[in-house]
């Protein structure tokens, strides 16, 4: 036990020295002479301790290494998967023009109802949307794309809580829900809040506002649905071994961890989750 | 809590006077030169033992000091507390260089987190406060405690395995035992919450799978609790103790601490570099 702790303590000292040197060079832009004055003596001192402690690794010093390797793997697997997913989403995001084009197709019908479509892309719309419209050949008459934005403040002011805007095509709106760490998203009817902000938005902006408000109300009366898109990797046979291992691992992590979209207090009966596979 | 910082140096002083008043000679660097001249390569191997000494026997002291510093500077509630905790571990070696280091890195920590960049004045006050607290109470307290323990050990070489409890004089043994245990409990608590902070920061930066993070305070962003992390820590901690044997009285605290450390050693500064750049 003591050996384990000893290895960790001395490694922490050495790592801190190296990290601080990096901070000095990269962020503070300390003159190199001063950096060297700090780094050389501390590195020699700690380096000699570390080298001496390394002789004790078989006696229990391996434990911290084992734990950190596992953690590093988890972190790297997660980061790699996120990176790949982000790249894909960025490359395939649906722009407003593309959406207009999709909706203008003759086979695409607008079905009555109000649809909340959740995604986590801040600018542009998730590729899942394109997938959805193409395959279902339909979109709800009033569709609101909801993005959550987490801010580093305790509470977001009521007025800034929900930001709505009109996207190009008729009956399609964008909405950003901003929340701070002390705001709870679980209570309150999000659908009602969003519709009321939309109504306010209509009143203040356009002359055709009343018409839009009426269609919104009609859609709400017909039925509300909350759609969440989920994108998963499909690791094909032709993927490299590295991708196979890492993305398989990522899928595993993704499967056991929490959803990025917290429970928003939407009724379970109105929830729909749609998935899309991204072939690597 | 303050009891710990003030009682240990008193015992330290007592033991210096009682066993080996000349202990302060050890501060002179020429001894290390003589040590290496005499022991050659064996001296290098012994360095390993020295590290284990400072981490092993004085573990509760350290744990407590970490907490103490956190309390004084109100850092436990801060996302950067982990960095500070890590720094505080360096007090272990009880040498003057630690003070300089602490000073540098503390500033590094405070400058790195975006949420803190908005509060320039409190940050300045905070660094100064930290330094005053450290220099005037904790550092002398540590020096006296360690010097006292060393003085005791020089005359009782065979007690090395249980240095701290043997060095406490008989009449005050039980009161000290209680203070030490309480200190260790509080200290390990601060380490656990530090782990939550690190995990939270990593999740925000998308470096770690999403886990549930509960903000327990309406005002301080750094006060978080993560149930999943807590259970993982518990499982790892229990398995460390089962694997390595629970013979050691401080094993419990150790387990958590080791894991927390291993988990956070590298993450924090990397994260801070990224957010800054």
Briefly summarize what is shown.
Chain A is an alpha/beta fold. Chain A has helices spanning 2-28, 32-54, 62-92, 96-104, 127-136, 158-161, 190-205, 209-222, 241-256, and strands spanning 109-119, 138-150, 162-166, 172-179, 224-234, 271-279.
Q: How many strands, which pairing sense, and closed or not: the largest β-sheet of chain B?
A: 2 strands, antiparallel
Distance between the termini of chain B: 39 Å
User: What's the pLDDT, averaged over the residues of chain A?
Assistant: 81
Greatest contact pair? A-B, 55 and 64 residues
Number of helices in the DSSP assignment of chain B = 11
Please list the strands of the largest sheet of chain B in the order they lie side by side.
1-2
How would you describe the shape of chain A?
elongated
Give me the side-by-side strand order of the main sheet of chain A: 3-4-2-1-5-6
Radius of gyration of chain A: 26 Å
Q: Poorly predicted ranges of chain B (pLDDT <50, ≥5 residues)?
A: 56-124, 246-253, 262-277
The computed structural class of chain A is alpha/beta
Shape call of chain B: extended
Multimerization status: heterodimer
Helical residues, percent of chain A: 40-55%
Largest β sheet strand count, sense and barrel closure of chain A: 6 strands, mixed
Structural class of chain B: mainly alpha
Number of helical elements of chain A? 9
Overview features:
heterodimer; A: 280 residues; alpha/beta; 9 helices; 54% helix; B: 277 residues; two-stranded antiparallel ribbon; 11 helices; extended
């Amino acid at each position: 036990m003591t050996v384990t702790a000893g290895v960790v303590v001395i490694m922490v000292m050495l790592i801190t020295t190296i990290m601080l040197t990096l901070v000095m060079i990269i962020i503070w832009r300390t003159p190199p002479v001063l950096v060297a004055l700090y780094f050389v003596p501390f590195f020699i001192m700690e380096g000699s301790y570390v080298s001496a402690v390394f002789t004790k690794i078989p006696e229990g010093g391996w434990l911290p290494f084992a734990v950190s390797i596992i953690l590093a793997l988890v972190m790297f697997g997660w980061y790699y998967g996120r990176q790949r997913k982000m790249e894909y989403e960025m490359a395939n995001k649906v722009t407003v023009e593309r959406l207009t084009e999709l909706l203008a197709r003759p086979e695409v019908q607008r079905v009555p109802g109000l649809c909340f479509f959740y995604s986590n892309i801040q600018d542009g719309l998730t590729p899942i949307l394109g997938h959805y419209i193409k395959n279902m050949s339909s979109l709800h008459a009033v569709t609101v794309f909801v993005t959550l934005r987490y801010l580093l403040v305790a509470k977001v002011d009521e007025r800034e809580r929900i930001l709505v805007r009109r996207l190009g095509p008729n009956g399609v709106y964008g909405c950003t829900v901003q929340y701070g760490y002390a705001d709870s998203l679980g209570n309150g009817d999000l659908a009602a809040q969003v519709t009321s902000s939309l109504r306010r938005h209509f009143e203040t902006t356009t002359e055709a506002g009343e018409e839009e408000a009426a269609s919104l109300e009609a859609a709400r009366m017909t039925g509300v649905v909350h759609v969440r898109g989920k994108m998963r990797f499909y690791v094909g046979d032709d993927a490299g071994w590295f991708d196979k291992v890492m993305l398989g691992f990522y899928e595993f992590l993704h499967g056991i961890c929490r959803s990025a979209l917290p429970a928003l207090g939407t009724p379970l009966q109105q929830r729909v989750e749609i998935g899309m596979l991204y072939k690597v | 809590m303050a009891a710990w910082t003030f009682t240990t140096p008193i015992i330290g002083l007592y033991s210096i006077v009682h066993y080996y008043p000349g202990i302060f000679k050890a501060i002179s660097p020429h001894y290390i030169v003589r040590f290496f001249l005499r022991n050659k390569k064996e001296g290098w191997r012994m360095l390993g033992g020295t590290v284990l000494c400072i981490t092993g026997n004085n573990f509760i002291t350290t744990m407590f000091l970490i907490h103490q510093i956190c309390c004084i500077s109100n850092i436990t509630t801060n996302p950067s507390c982990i960095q500070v905790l890590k720094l505080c571990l360096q007090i272990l070696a009880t040498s003057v260089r630690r003070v300089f280091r602490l000073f540098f890195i503390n500033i590094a920590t405070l400058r790195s987190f975006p949420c803190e960049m908005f509060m320039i004045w409190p940050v300045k006050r905070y660094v100064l406060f930290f330094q005053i607290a450290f220099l005037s109470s904790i550092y002398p307290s540590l020096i006296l405690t360690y010097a006292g323990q060393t003085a005791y050990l020089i005359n009782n070489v065979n007690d090395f395995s249980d240095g701290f409890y043997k060095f406490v004089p008989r009449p005050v043994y039980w009161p000290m035992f209680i203070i030490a245990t309480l200190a260790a409990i509080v200290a390990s608590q601060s380490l656990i919450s530090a782990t939550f902070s690190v995990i939270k920061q990593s999740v925000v930066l998308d470096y770690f799978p999403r886990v549930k993070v509960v903000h327990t305070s309406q005002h301080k962003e750094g006060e978080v609790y993560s149930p999943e992390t807590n259970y993982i820590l518990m499982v790892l901690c229990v398995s460390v103790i089962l694997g390595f044997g629970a013979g050691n009285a401080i094993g419990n605290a150790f387990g958590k601490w080791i894991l927390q450390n291993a988990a956070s050693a590298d993450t924090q500064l990397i994260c801070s570099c990224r957010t800054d750049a």
